[in-house]
Description:
five-stranded mixed beta sheet, elongated, DNA polymerase, domain 1
Amino acid sequence: MPSLSLTAAGVARLKPPKAGQLEYYDRRLPSFGIRLSYQGSKSWFVMTRLDGKLIRVTLGKYPALSLANAREEARRVICISAAGKDPRRIRAEAKQKRQEGRRNTFQACADEFLERHVERRLRVSTHREYHRILKGHDTRIWRNRAISEISKRDVLDVIEGIEGRGSPGASKRALVYLRKFFNWCAERDIITTPPTDRLRPPHPEVKRDRVLTDVELRYLLRALDYEQSLFGPLIRLLLLTGQRRAEVAGMSWSELRDFGSNHPLWEIPGHRTKNKRVHLVPLSPVACRLLSALPHVSDLIFTTTGDTPMSGFGKVKARLETRIDAFRDVDGLQPMAPWTLHDLRRTMVTVMNEKLGISPHIVEAVVNHVSGLAKAGVAGVYNRALYLEHRRQALNSWQDWLSRVTHA
């Protein structure tokens, strides 16, 4: 076989044979060489002995593998075989590990988790939350990392970063989603121990019991008068119906029943409710007027894209709080105590029970609870009454009470 003093420039100038293959050995490292095929490819190889037998090991292709790196790899292969180990098997195992590493990056595992677990089993609103944490800005730095390399410290950095932005609730939810994801990876033997194992939430769970006062509701409704986006009617509907935020945000025109009649209903399908049960919400006259004034962009009512429900509640809430505090400052009052959108639902339930004299089982039916005495246990099996007319009266009474608060 011909031999050359292989150099980077010389290798680049080597011409392929007209047929078959041609090999050149390196004069600096005689067992090392390069093979040229008539098709134009160039690959590095080294000849070495294992247990007295001559073996060929292909090192890689040129120019992906440079001359200097190929020569160094050839020396390593010779040392491995001299130690009585098969360099071909070691290289194959290393290649398989690299392939598994690429397959088991955070991004690849997240995509598989979202497809196999989230999108097939969970609600659309939950899909969005998982996508936000697994595909969003907070975990972007992990995307090309092997999932086995993500440590507990890495997870803490993400959770504490979210909390540091002033979003303690979001940080707690992020930990819940990440823990589920990493546990899923452990169940599939992608990792041994989840980095979320025994990781505590950044702040203790606080049971909320916040109920807005009449005065606070008056300032909120006044602030909503200045909200020009679709969030204005969305939050008003949230307040008027007492339903959950995701349920109202995902409301569609096709879910409305007998709209325009004297008994309009909003039918929330089971896949969009927390308890997986179809829920009927009688719509008050004010709620109907709000909906009638909205544009028909798509079947979704509260959307700007036509494809997905509106998001960004944190920003609109911040705008409302700024307006509320400005109004209160003019009136010589302190800023309003911290509150959440879910407090509106709790406020409606409290007012219905304590001020409007509505029976507890009717209130439970309005908000689609099945834990009340009227629906719990064995009684719940037999008590299938919808109480639709009673619920309509309750929501109309709540609408009238809000009107009185606004004009007080």
